[in-house]
TrEMBL record:
Gene name of the record: ku
Gene3D superfamilies reported in the protein's UniProt record: 2.40.290.10
Protein's name in the database: Non-homologous end joining protein Ku
Record organism: Phyllobacterium bourgognense
Ranges where the Ku domain occurs: 55-184
Pfam families in the record: Ku
Family classification: Belongs to the prokaryotic Ku family.
Purpose: With LigD forms a non-homologous end joining (NHEJ) DNA repair enzyme, which repairs dsDNA breaks with reduced fidelity. Binds linear dsDNA with 5'- and 3'- overhangs but not closed circular dsDNA nor ssDNA. Recruits and stimulates the ligase activity of LigD.
Keyword terms: DNA damage, DNA recombination, DNA repair, DNA-binding
Keyword Iron-sulfur attributed: no
Length: 268
């Protein structure tokens, strides 16, 4: 059963409008979460803001946002001042422009959401916008207030629905050339490429969500289940012994040994 949508509004392209619902495409609800407790009493510990100089608790009414401009000096901003600079929290995703699908690099993608029609009457309008983007290879760009911030969002057709991605802000993305720029651009020995491709072929598998299972989560659930039953916690999983990597002196020899090792493993 699909979870309830956390946002409802309208998708708009010029004069074409249809009601839509949006739900985050990812969730951490199944993750093991912990509370901090007082070991002596078993009661939960609560956090509280205190003045860094006097050490006294600060009432919620006295809390205010501050921008640091020197070591001990801040510019204070009230909540209404911060909210005044943001986009009005409308319930309409108004597609302002379209850009080629492959022109937005992956690093700008932030959080995905499933966008679906929220009314059978508006389903045709939703579908024609989706199919037109798919046919032209374009994605829609709009702005929306989400998670209490104004954000640029990208609408990407996916199957029978649309995925709405929040996009990262410009100052969040670092310049890749600052990190990759010093890597030498020398041509790779053409004799090495077939060997590496052979290694890749040996390890090719179809994608399976189990490849990204969380073993730590599984172990934590085992410990919690054992403690519920009053049993001792399961023994710690043994770490597989592995030799530390050594500096490769001859890449050709290392690749040939790797292929030989892969072949033996596959036969077994």
């Amino acid at each position: 059963m699909a979870p309830r949508s956390f946002w409802k509004g309208y998708l708009k392209l010029s004069l074409v409008t249809c009601p839509v619902a949006m739900t985050p495409a990812t969730t951490d609800n199944e993750k093991v979460k912990f509370h901090t407790l007082n070991r002596k009493t078993g009661n939960r510990v609560v956090s509280q803001y205190v003045d860094s100089v006097s050490g006294k608790p600060v009432d919620e009414d006295e809390e205010v946002k501050g921008y640091q401009r020197s070591e001990d000096e801040y510019v204070m901003l009230e909540e209404d001042e911060i909210e005044a600079v943001g986009l009005e929290s409308t319930r309409t995703i108004d597609i302002e422009m379209f850009v080629p699908r492959d022109s937005i690099d992956w690093i700008w993608y932030d959080k995905p959401h499933y966008l679906t029609p929220d009314d059978p009457v508006g389903e045709e309008a939703f579908s024609v916008i989706r199919d037109a983007m798919e046919a032209t290879g374009q994605v829609g760009i709009s702005r929306l207030v989400m998670y209490r911030r104004e954000r640029a969002v990208m609408l990407e057709p996916r199957g029978r629905g649309i995925v709405l991605w929040t996009l990262r802000y410009g100052d969040e993305v670092r310049d890749r050339d600052a990190y990759f720029g010093d890597i030498k651009n020398d041509k790779v020995d053409s004799n090495l490429m077939p060997l590496v491709k052979t290694l890749i072929d040996e390890r090719m598998k179809p994608w399976d969500p189990k490849m990204v299972d969380d073993p730590v989560q599984d172990r934590l659930l085992e410990i919690i289940a054992a403690k519920k039953k009053g049993k001792k916690r399961p023994a710690k999983a043994k770490e597989s012994a592995s030799e530390p990597p050594s500096n490769v002196v001859n890449i050709m020899d290392a690749l040939k040994k790797s292929i030989a090792s892969e072949s033996k493993t596959k036969k077994r």
